[in-house]
Write a structure and sequence with these properties.
The protein is built from 10 helices and 7 strands. The chain has helices spanning 9-21, 37-44, 48-52, 60-64, 87-96, 114-117, 136-153, 188-202, 213-227, 231-250, and strands at 2-4, 28-30, 55-57, 69-73, 84-85, 101-105, 122-124. Helix 1 (9-21) links the parallel strand 1 and strand 2. The protein is elongated.
Length: 255
């Protein structure tokens, strides 16, 4: 779970509590406003260990850099046709996808801003009757419980003492072959690097004339998400783009 610029320390503590009760452990907090750890502890209850181990970072990009997918919880309209999930669909994806998924929640008064949403590849909508606004920690609890219920349905059993499974989301995955491990999927940080180089390469051509850079970036990002490239494949793509960019600056090959 990633909290982006939370205002109230109590919501950070309550988030840690909701996560602990649902078998989740990895909390990341992005530049909280006037954060008070003691006030957060008051609301953390049995989730104080999750709070104490939370990672505090300066940017959303840093928060999601080691993940393969970032999903932003927002009531805003779609932009660039991002896929929209409800908590149950997100829970299924969390348990079925091979890599870590970051679930982003924005500050209490304004939600996720455009810069944060631009780091996401999908949106999360929590269905409501009427006013779509929810308390931050309550929204987190609803998502955590959706993941928890899906994990239980998939055969995961919480430990009596810690209620923590083998992975950050406390989930048990189906058995996997141990003889050969596939190449690891590329993280969002690696995907961001290849997107930057792709945009830089396109800017050396006439393609970007009249194009919206944000839309191009999101479109290419969605393509990468569907392709699910490995770290090795990302390195190959980056090599291709670098060589092409170098050739464009050097002129035609006369060898």
């Amino acid at each position: 779970m990633v909290l982006v610029h939370p205002i109230h320390p109590g919501n950070v503590g309550a988030t840690a509590r909701a996560m602990k009760n649902s078998g989740l452990r990895h909390l990341v907090v992005v530049s909280p406003l006037q954060f008070d750890m003691e006030r957060a502890r008051w609301m953390a209850g049995g989730g104080r260990d999750v709070l104490e181990q939370a990672r505090f970072v300066s940017t959303v990009a840093e928060a999601v850099s080691d993940c393969q997918l970032a999903v932003g919880c927002t009531a805003r309209s779609r932009r660039w046709d991002w896929p929209v999930l409800d908590p149950e669909a997100l829970a299924e994806k969390t348990l079925s996808d091979p890599g870590p998924i970051a679930i982003l929640f924005g500050r209490e008064d304004m939600g996720l801003d455009n810069d944060a949403l631009l780091q996401c590849q999908a949106l999360l909508r929590i269905p409501t009757d009427g006013e779509p606004s929810l308390n931050l920690s309550q929204a987190v609890l609803m998502v955590c419980q959706a993941v928890f219920r899906q994990a239980i349905a998939s055969g995961w059993e919480p430990k009596a003492e810690e209620r923590q499974g083998p992975r950050s989301a406390g989930r048990k995955r189906p058995g996997r072959p141990t003889e050969a491990q596939p190449d690891p999927l590329a993280t969002l940080n690696a995907q961001s690097l290849v997107l930057n180089e792709a945009i830089g390469l396109l800017e050396q051509t006439s393609y970007m004339t009249g194009q919206n850079e944000e839309q191009v970036r999101v479109t290419l990002g969605k393509l990468l998400q569907r392709a699910a490239p490995t770290e090795k494949e990302i390195k190959i793509l980056r090599g291709m783009f670098k060589k092409t960019a170098w050739r464009l600056t050097q002129g035609p090959n006369t060898d």
